[in-house]
Amino acid sequence: MTGLEVRDLTVRTSGGRTLLDSVSWEVPFGGRLGIIGESGSGKSLTAAAVLGLLPEGMTATGQVLLDGRDLLTLGERAMRRVRGAQVAMVFQEPLTALDPLMTVGRQVAGPLRLHRGVSRARARELTADLFRLVRLDDAERILGSYPWQLSGGQRQRVSLAMALACEPRVLLADEPTTALDVTVQAEMLDLLDDLIERTGTTLVFVSHDLPVVARVARDLVVMRSGQVVEASTVAQALEAPAHPYTRQLLAAARAVSRLPQEDER
Ligand SMILES: Nc1ncnc2c1ncn2[C@@H]1O[C@H](COP(=O)(O)OP(=O)(O)OP(=O)(O)O)[C@@H](O)[C@H]1O
Predict the structure, then answer these.
(1) Global pTM?
(2) Which of 78, 109, 143, 198 is least enclosed, having the fewest CB within 10 Å?
(3) Is 39 a pocket residue for ligand 1 (Cβ < 6 Å)?
């Protein structure tokens, strides 16, 4: 398949605990997959395994096929070329991804120079373009700002710009809007939706929040205790969830009334 395919991905701790148990899913290039599940279900570990960033001591078996090439077999050097350039990631809390001691302009320009081999001046221009792309007003000022000088929403836009800098084929987003307030969250999701649409980037969006996933994803994988319990489309899961756990997630989302009730749709 041309796309990203995870096949029988199993992750164990050095103590032999199985954290991911034969996880399989696929997303074609240009597709949008949402991975949903409660805290501890294995969503973040799945993303980490795809990027070759599992914590020390954990081992992964199975396959992570990007356009048919198994990323699990690559060494660290080869994986570093995949990360950022082919599969990029946006994290829940941008402060963990951003260096507090470096201006955000330099943090985005750095990988651009590395991966695209452009001059310092060109990298700065491209970074300003990216900041405008993620709708950061006053891109010039923001280039010279440190992460702590920006709002949470601005920081998340910067990390999105950083992730998109090398025009990755796949964008992995791990709860990228959870730390934001509801209005900023909605703006970020609209922005992400628009950018994905325009650039044709493949999206894998990880969240515990079904309404959020429903906004940006088309296909859906539901995880529980390290396993995939349901794989369908978002529309189908909202219409007729097959697994009791998916029904539970749906009921919980409807209880906080951010999804239409059945009789309203
Ligand atoms: N470094 C680690 N060492 C040992 N166990 C871990 C480690 N990281 C995660 N786990 C365990 O792996 C399981 C899956 O964790 P994971 O972080 O992938 O869940 P999640 O679905 O992303 O949850 P959340 O929504 O809270 O981020 C959990 O049981 C967790 O306790």
Answers:
(1) 0.90
(2) 198
(3) yes
